[in-house]
From TrEMBL:
This is LAO/AO transport system kinase. GO terms for molecular function: GTP binding; GTPase activity; kinase activity. Residues 43-168 form the AAA+ ATPase domain. InterPro entries: AAA+_ATPase (IPR003593), GTPase/Isobutyryl-CoA_mutase (IPR052040), GTPase_ArgK (IPR005129), P-loop_NTPase (IPR027417). Gene3D superfamilies: P-loop containing nucleotide triphosphate hydrolases (3.40.50.300).
Length: 299
């Protein structure tokens, strides 16, 4: 059964993809078998999008989908639902805004419920991300609301993390949650149609400059998502970030982080992240790695 499903998944069959995700979400029969047989490599660009509620993430993702479809790309979106019922209405709203894409064969949208413990959440995102990566999409956007811990989790899964903010009074940048500043590979200042936008962008650029690391200065992109403005610049920034030199090193780090989460979730051996990183690097040197197979060696 898993073999047939996998075959469908690898050809990008949407039904197979949906069923595969459900198996992984529910840890149903065949769950481990499916994960360990996923291909090691994928060309999918995984992009995390996070930011405070109402910053315009869904509108922005919508605009990105439009632009990428015009370039002939295939795009998947995972929206991580905060489990709180308070957010449920907002998420329904998101789905409605994205509904214009529901019938396109080149777009796949899926919500992932974040029930259970935090560790559970990130493990499921890791696993579902890998399933989607097997289905041949050009881009996978993972959208999370930037409250609490989840945005930090996302940084360990995405190749590129985008933090969406809106123009506020200048000083607020200084108090921006330290975590968000750390994880951003790209800043988007959405709602740049607001009069305070230019000053805000200027301040944020200064701050990004002082936080430059690994030869990457976090670009600050102005967008007006409702008017689809700034979207091409954002896609160019994503492309540029994915082409930077550190990607190979980052890949090892991300894999080690994933491996750590998977081992925790499966309650396997107690092993340090440093040891896992060393193991991942050894395997990477010999070719690409299936992290689920590697996790089994720690059983
Ligand atoms: N003026 C202006 N409004 C925008 C822009 N982008 C989004 N909005 C509006 O801002 C509101 C929130 O947008 P969403 O896309 O729902 O924001 P979100 O970040 O997904 O919000 P949550 O679902 O609450 O997390 C909507 O009413 C949008 O129409 C923009 O660039 N300019």
């Amino acid at each position: 059964m898993i073999e047939a499903l996998l075959k469908g998944l690898l050809t990008g069959d949407i039904k197979s993809l949906s069923r595969s995700i459900s198996i992984v979400e529910n840890e149903a029969t065949g769950y481990e078998e499916l994960l360990t047989q996923l291909p090691n490599a994928s060309h999918t660009k995984v992009v995390g999008i996070t930011g405070p509620p109402g910053a315009g993430k869904s509108t922005l993702v919508n605009a990105l989908i439009n632009a990428l479809l015009q370039q002939g790309k295939k795009v998947a979106i995972i929206a991580v639902d905060p489990s709180s019922p308070f957010n449920f209405g907002a998420l329904l709203g998101d789905r409605i805004r994205m509904a214009q894409h529901f019938n396109s064969p080149h777009v796949y949208i899926r919500s992932l419920a974040s029930r259970g413990a935090l560790g559970g959440l990130s493990t499921k995102i890791i696993e579902v991300t890998d399933v989607v990566k097997a289905a041949g999409f050009d881009y996978l956007f993972i959208e999370t609301v930037g409250v609490g811990q989840s945005e930090v989790d996302i940084a360990g899964i995405a190749d590129t993390s985008i933090v969406v903010v809106v123009p506020e009074a200048g000083d607020e940048i200084q108090t921006m949650k330290a975590g968000l500043m750390e994880i951003a590979n790209i800043f988007v200042v959405n709602k740049s149609d607001r009069p305070t936008a230019d000053q805000f962008v200027k301040n944020l650029r200064l701050l990004a400059h002082t936080k430059m690391r690994d030869g990457w200065e976090t670009p600050v992109i102005k967008t007006v998502a409702t008017q689809e403005k700034g979207i091409d610049e954002l896609i160019a920034a994503i492309t540029k970030h994915q082409q930077q030199n550190e990607q190979q090193q980052r890949k090892a780090y991300l894999l080690a982080e994933k491996l750590y989460q998977l081992i925790q979730h499966r309650r396997m051996k107690n092993v340090s992240k440093a040891a896992l990183l060393a193991d991942v690097m050894k395997h990477l040197a010999a070719g690409d790695v299936n992290v689920y197979k590697l996790a089994q060696t720690y059983a």
